[in-house]
Amino acid sequence: MTTASAVETLNKAVEEIKEQVIAWRRYLHQNPELSFHEENTAQFVYDTLVSFGNLEVTRPTRTSVVARLIGPAPGKVLAMRADMDALPITEENDLPYASQNPGVMHACGHDGHTAMLLGAAKLLAGMKEQIKGEVRFLFQHAEELAPGGAEEMVEAGVMDGVDLVIGSHLWASMEFGTVGICPGPMMAAPDTFYIVVKGKGGHAALPHQTIDSIAIAAQVVTNLQHIVARNTDPLDNLVVSVTKFVGGTTHNVIPGSVEILGTVRSFNPELRANMPTLMERVVKGITEAHGASYEFEYENGYRPVINDAEVTRLMEDVVVESLGAEWVEHIRPNMGGEDFSAFQQKAPGCFFYIAAGNREKGITYPHHHPRFAIEENALEVGVKMFVNAARKIVMEG
Length: 397
Ligand code: NI
Fold this sequence. Notes:
Blueprint lengths: L2 H28 L8 H14 L3 E3 L6 E6 L2 E11 L26 H16 L6 E9 L8 H7 L8 E12 L3 E3 L2 E4 L1 E10 L3 E2 L9 H18 L7 E9 L6 E2 L2 E10 L2 H21 L3 E7 L5 E3 L1 H14 L5 E3 L9 H5 L4 E9 L19 H19 L2
Parallel strand pairs: 3-4, 3-5, 5-16, 6-15
Antiparallel strand pairs: 1-2, 2-4, 6-16, 7-14, 8-12, 8-13, 9-11, 10-12
Helix pairs in contact: 1-3, 1-9, 2-3, 3-9, 5-6, 7-9
The structure holds nickel (II) ion.
């Protein structure tokens, strides 16, 4: 069979189960569960996978599921990953399948990721005899909450023997009709920090009798940007964002302390390793200069998503062969974080975006927004990507 006719057969099969994939996604959307609490979701995924036959289905951790499709001939082991968790957000969409779990919403598209991978598993399970090697489907819990589910799954051995790993994210800020490809660094390491500036409280009319934690903390905030602007190679990427600044109770009292929280995003491991020292130097210098003291904590988040050049080239070929050259969109990296990177520690991998925005339909809200939505036609695109990746990597050649 030529590649073109194999693609045609596969894509036709995807189109035939498209409605089923959309139905799975809507069921999951209606029944969202928070990170590390995906009990019903994992059970639903497990039961659905078992119903396909030909798969070895297991639960490597309490709320994750892995299905192995082992072909009769030897070959590569290709892992495909979908995340399954939702967010603590109250949905504001007026949809027949809106969240029925108050305060919890699939506001990042992970419902779609799960449905797409179920679709791919269903089709590929029916083609077991053609598989050379193995396709391993990783249904991951807890992408949204550090330390993340990916790390736990890796520790449970789900990546043992894997030769390549792929994963995708539905991406609402890209207009439907493309697949975003990015070799090399794609998503940043998302670290967090916590600072307390400790001054001395007192009467707002008598500032000289206080150590004004608000004025000092404000200087800490502005001077943290000095690290980005003046201490970092301009060709490196770095974000320092203060996202919480809490102090004081009323207009005539200078508070004794101010709490500052925020995030640091970077790609370069050396720069990342230096950040706690650079930041603490600023905090220490400024608080000391004004007679205050401080607490400082820095916590490493996920590793950055760094795409393997060869696997990324393969996935770009998959886009061209299965969807058409006009579907390839070469995207820039962004400073978001993703624990797909944990799987990439164990095998070369590629993470890619499936454009899922649609301005005409008003599908324009950003990820993690109470009105986040996806263009559901993107689900079919995702299934086509996964089954055609399997075709290229474990069926042809
Ligand atoms: Ni997400």
